[in-house]
Amino acid sequence: MTTATATAFTARYGGSPDGVWAAPGRINLIGEHTDYNEGYVLPAALPHTTTVAARRRADGVVRLFSAQGDGEVTELALDALAPGSVPGWAAYPAGVFWALIEAGHALGGADLAFCSDVPTGAGLSSSATLECATAIALDDLFGLGLDAPGRALIAQRAENAFVGVPCGALDQMASSCCVAGHAHFLDTRTLTGRQVPLDLPAVGLTLLVIDTKVKHDLGDGAYAGLRAGCERAAALLGVPALRDITIAELGTAEAQLPAELRPLLRHVVTEDQRVLDTVAALDAGEPRALGPILTAGHASLRDDYRVSCPETDLAVSAANAAGALGARMMGGGFGGSVLALVDTALLDTVERAVHAAFAEAGFGAPQTFTATPSQGAHRVS
Ligand code: GLA
Known about the structure:
This protein is α+β, with helices and mostly antiparallel strands. It has helices at residues 2-13, 91-102, 126-141, 148-163, 170-177, 222-237, 250-255, 262-283, 290-304, 310-321, 347-361, and strands at residues 19-28, 40-41, 43-56, 61-66, 74-77, 110-116, 182-187, 192-197, 205-211, 326-329, 337-343, 367-370, 378-379. The radius of gyration is 21 Å and the shape is globular. Alpha-D-galactopyranose is lined by residues 32-33, 35-36, 167-168, 170-171, 218, 331-332. Alpha-D-galactopyranose binds at residues 32-33, 35-36, 167-168, 170-171, 218, 331-332.
């Protein structure tokens, strides 16, 4: 894709780019809707990336082109960038320019061309890949001296304040900071964590991604509503964030909340515990133990957090019925992808069973692929 991206750049702008950078999509083993509650997450980077070819300009103009877009070049003036002013996909890279300037960095104009094989609207963080690819390209082009978490926070700021989606740090931290062959155990309060080795094929296991093709849109208000509900619950409980309630305190805390907020609390507190249990199982060399944890996580997202949909529920139940060790939906919800942990020997059986179940239910065909933990954002040429 590097070559394709450089070719797209030359076709649009003429000449050669100064460099090409890539940022990956992500899976999340466990830890869903915990990041804006200052809890734990455990993502890994996908081999699927958004690449950007970029070149500095001598003026204050920004040009943005996507090979997956409508063929148009978006042209913007650096000094006129304002939240909400850029429609569509271009808001993500434009927001990174804006966030860097807002943070006091000296930027000039640039021409950028993007190519991506990250499925969009599939709960695999395609928007974060646009942001994180832009952040690393601009860091290099203008010698900003940021580190990977610093770029992730700029990318998150772009999404929160420029695009207007109140997401947590999961997607941008994953796309910027993941390491090949590992899952990234991250405490989103302190942004500290560690890389946990994740070589499932070595023990005969495979992570299967099932993209239900049901598009989700975090901008539609449901996500913001859930976040607001969690913040209200934390305020009522007198804690900075729901991450401060432990499993042992759950029953007492629930009793202090109005009925509609109790399931949100239950999900967040039990999900944080599931992240800790998952890391403990991996550390103990017991990866098969992840299966039931994944399935319990899905039940919590379906019954308490209520962000699943018929297609993700079916993908989970069909995969499990066909012998998967466990499965759950990933990302914001209301569609998107399911992650299943499968004995490699059963991979074909599980994939066929999921396709058959979708056909029988009259749902559109899902897309399935296996996930190998890959490298975070990096320069490719
Ligand atoms: C989306 C958001 C993330 C996170 C997940 C749910 O992917 O962008 O910040 O909240 O949903 O875990």
